[in-house]
Each structure stands twice: as structure tokens, then as C-alpha cells.
Amino acid sequence: QVQMMESGGNLVQAGGSLRLSCTASGLTFDNYNMGWFRQAPGKEREGVSCINRSGGITYYAESVKGRFTISRDNTKKTLYLQMSTLKPEDTAMYYCAAGSGFWSGCRSGYYNYWGQGTQVTVSS
């Protein structure tokens, strides 16, 4: 049974930093592209940042470029998202996802497994 467990969400002031983690079990982690997605109340889910199997290719949404960094540790089966210079508009539930198909950036339809999410709230 595949499980994806996110952690690291919190309430933080604007300009602050957080690091999200996602630990996967029940799958061969390095066979999967991984991604972070977020959904704010009343908005559609969006792809924030994604990374390919080896970690050699990454994608970032324009809104987070230069502020967020995605990384993965295949030996620990863990995905990370380092978030800096946080803004109130970054407030959302953040989900990690795993996709077994070819690299497609952050197109959510190509991701098979999803976590339950971790809440990030940025106060102004």
C-alpha cells in the first residue's frame, strides 16, 4: 500500500521560511517523478514544483521561482520543498504526489499517488 506523508506546514510571518518534507512508502521511490502541489480555499489546485526521478530536472511555477527549492533524497525516500521569502498568497494546503509515467513537469494528471496535505499559512 502506497503512503505519502507530508510534514513541515505551519503558521509563519511573511518573509519567513519553511521546509516541507514528504516521505513515501510502498513504492520504489526512485522510479517516480515527484511534485508539490497546493490548493487554497476557492482556488484550483496548482503545481508548485516538480522533480524528475533522478533529481536532474526540476520545474517551478512562475510565482515561486527564486523563492522555493525542490529536492529529493532517494535513499531516504523523501521529497523536500524549501520555501523562503514566503508571501500571504502562498497560504494553501500543500500536497506531495508521485508519478510513474514520463516526465511531464507538474501536470497533475500524470501523478498517481497523493498525500493528505500539510497546511501552510503565511500571515501579513
Outline the structure in words:
With 124 residues, the chain is mainly β. 0% of the residues lie in helices and 48% in strands. It is built from no helices and 11 strands. It has strands at residues 3-7, 11-13, 18-25, 33-39, 46-51, 58-60, 68-73, 78-83, 92-99, 113-114, 118-123. Strands 2, 4, 5, 6, 9, 10 and 11 form a 7-stranded mixed beta sheet that branches. A hairpin with a 6-residue loop joins strand 4 and strand 5. It is globular and about 40 Å long.
Task: Kindly list the characteristics that best describe this protein.
globular, four-stranded antiparallel β-sheet, seven-stranded mixed β-sheet, mainly beta, 0% helix
Brief write-up:
With 124 residues, the protein is mostly beta strands. Helix content is 0%, strand content 48%.
List the SSEs and their pairings:
Elements: E1 3-7, E2 11-13, E3 18-25, E4 33-39, E5 46-51, E6 58-60, E7 68-73, E8 78-83, E9 92-99, E10 113-114, E11 118-123
Parallel strand pairs: 2-11
Antiparallel strand pairs: 1-3, 3-8, 4-5, 4-9, 5-6, 7-8, 9-10, 9-11
